[in-house]
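> call design_seq(struct)
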């Protein structure tokens, strides 16, 4: 029997996911967008997630409504902030952020299993400088390798409310400087070798009536990439 509480909420995602494999990490350049108009019980985010049916790690950016009870900061146990880190869980996104058809700002995030400690570390790269944000202890997870990795935008909202915007709040087809994106997508295999995935290594996730995702393309300037997103107000039940 389905949980009545779960039936009160809808979850939708748009992005690309790897086919089953064995991974030690991933990297992506993520466009930074403000996310307005998120209702009291809703959440909108864009993130990288990896793991398996025994657990997962997630790194990205989100906006949650004032009544959301999820924990994304250091007040909850689990993530250890590195000494000197300037970026940390729960930190408010501050300008500069991307603006529609004008400014384009991004940050590169890397999640990688540490070869020595076996912890899962998070790194950020901005303006050519890479710093360690922190790590999730290996003791938190019952797996040594991730079986799947997702690059995605996602929303969570009460069925009595309209869905919140995802990404830039515009569909994937609008493209550069208008749609949210993941660029320079790189995977790290179980032997700690980095490689660029092909479209055959991954499959798309989307709800075409609400949120869309573009093809997984490779470009000279942006590497393997895709656009994703959609506006608020979707009325589709599933």
């Amino acid at each position: 029997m389905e949980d009545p509480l779960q039936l009160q909420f809808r979850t939708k995602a748009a992005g690309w996911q790897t086919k089953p494999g064995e991974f030690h990490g991933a990297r992506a350049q993520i466009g930074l967008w403000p996310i307005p108009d998120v209702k009291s019980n809703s959440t909108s985010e864009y993130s990288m997630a990896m793991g398996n049916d025994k657990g997962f790690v997630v790194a990205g950016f989100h906006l949650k409504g004032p009544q959301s009870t999820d924990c994304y900061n250091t007040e909850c146990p689990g993530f250890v902030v590195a000494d000197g880190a300037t970026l940390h869980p729960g930190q408010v996104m501050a300008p500069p952020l991307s603006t529609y058809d004008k400014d384009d700002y991004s940050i590169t995030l890397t999640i990688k299993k540490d070869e020595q400690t076996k912890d899962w570390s998070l790194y950020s790269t901005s303006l050519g400088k890479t710093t360690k944000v922190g790590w999730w202890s290996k003791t938190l997870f019952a797996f040594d390798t991730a079986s799947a990795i997702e690059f995605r935008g996602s929303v969570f909202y009460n069925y009595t409310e309209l869905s919140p915007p995802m990404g830039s709040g515009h569909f994937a087809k609008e493209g550069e400087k208008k749609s949210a994106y993941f660029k320079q997508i790189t995977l790290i295999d179980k032997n700690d070798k980095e490689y660029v995935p092909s479209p055959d290594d991954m499959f798309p996730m989307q709800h075409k009536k609400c949120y869309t995702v573009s093809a997984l393309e490779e470009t000279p300037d942006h590497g393997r990439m895709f656009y994703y997103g959609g506006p608020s107000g979707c009325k589709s039940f599933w």
